[in-house]
Amino acid sequence: MYNDENNLYNYTYRKDGSELSHQRETVRPGGQPGPQGPEFEVKPVKKNRLGLKIAALALSCALLGGAAGGGAVWAMSQPGGNESEINVSNRPVTQVALRNVDGKTAMSDAEVYAANVNSVVSIRTSATAGYNFYRQPVETASAGSGFVLSKDGYILTNYHVVKGAETVTVTMYNGDEFPAQYIGGEEDYDIAVIKVEAENLQPVTLGDSATLNVGDHVLAIGNPLGELTFSMSGGMVSCVDRAINVDGTPFNMIQTDTSINPGNSGGPLFNQYGEVVGIVSAKYSQSSNGTTVEGLGFAIPMNDVFSMVKDIMTNGYVSNRAYLGITPQTMTENWAAQYHYDVTAGVFITYVEPDSAADKAGLKMGDVITKVDGTDIKSVEDLNLAKKKYSAGDSAALEVYRPDGTVTVEITWGAAPKEDQAAQQQETQQYPGNRNDNSGNGGYYGNPFEDLFRYFYG
Description:
alpha+beta; Thrombin, subunit H; Pdz3 Domain; six-stranded antiparallel β-barrel; six-stranded antiparallel beta barrel
């Protein structure tokens, strides 16, 4: 136990404090010896102010610089004439070269940051989430990231970052702020393009995400928590072409152990050449049994959305999104038993739109799509994921089950109707509450790998 008497702190292992009592008899204030034990004289410690001054001077000089390589030895005088030596490095501060991203030269992490931080932006949104008891509007706010696509102010981010926002504000690395206009987006791919009225911005260089290999080094720059602005984190590619289902929407993702947190959404994922190869989108945070997990972040491959981004910048919506023109339903064992089908998995067609790509290819109600270009299709989610690999005008071979046998149907994908795109954009601009949540607690929930997958919004 600890005891205190006359500001003397002593410790004893005995509960009755007998050792302490013995020590109090042995050592008394004023240095008077007790009846037992040796005599101890308590003396004040003299401060060697000269030594402290020398040490302070030595450390100051070491911090201010010195010759490259090697180090310096600083001596401090001690009581009794002794000297203590401290080895202090005098390596100069590393100068980071500002390199241009050319797609050929590998760069250090510091060089990637220096070359691209002026192209990354912080995004703040606000919206009215409803009204309180007094009929006063309740405002919500969130934060995210994005990156500059063009000198004249086009910026790419996640769809979920700006969905439902009434105001969008963009902050550059140098502190400049601009109000942003929503141009268009694609919810199924979680991408959105916004624009600020500015000139001579520094755009990123987009890279080829198909060149990524598991183990490649990647970096993310963004605004975790909406407060730690322009932070960089690094890691490796853990998996490419990872199929993930989020709230019924399939995504093809780059998996990485790069640290990703709320506020990073919409920011760029760089390769070692300083090129943007992905759009940071989500983090896998918790398993279905409540176990917390780390090191599972995801980014949208740049190749999967590049053509759509250009389309949004030109038309305000994705005009070439592949469209089949059916009303699909996931095939089940109950349906198979009801209709006496021999297949229990696939996409059951319940309706075919007249003059659609499906209609022109000869598909009809009751058909079951089981493969697209050799890829197994077991559900509507599988079909939607496969469809993302195509654009309007592309061709594909569908394997279709019919009661009288299995056939192969050649189709040419159509384009999504413009009214569907307009409806999606109207929802984004007029949605009366923003589902973005800077706390990371709200958002989409799905079930990949039989576990919980959570989107961290903002």
